[in-house]
Design brief:
The chain is built from 4 helices and 5 strands; from the N terminus they run βααβββαβα. It is an alpha+beta fold.
Length: about 140
Amino acid sequence: MVAIRPAQASDLPAISALDARLTGVRKPRYWKDMLGPERDFLVAETDKGALAGFIAGEVRAWEFGQPAAGWVFAIQVDPKTRLKGVGSALFAALAVRFKAQGVTRVRTLVDRKDHLILSFFRAQGMVAGPSLQLDKELP
């Protein structure tokens, strides 16, 4: 069982370390910026106080006239606690916060080759949305 609560500055070293371990990239400044007041940044901690995972997002009006929606920017779960409902609990808690802010949709972007995260979001009931990502490499 985990407890879900808002992230605090004291959580940043553990958040950054978990993310770096899973992605191979250290980005402490990014995680510090996620603590901004306009963002929803939640952590899951075990009954022993260890970080089990985190999720970050915000409500924003999508460009090009789309209505406001909750956007998930990041989610990471410690591999030792995967398949125990931690990610689902984090997603559900963030969805409650989004709904309280008046939105009725949750969106995110994923790499189509990342089958682990695609499977997770599909298990949460997410499907392809109305937007198409366009991309260009800059010279």
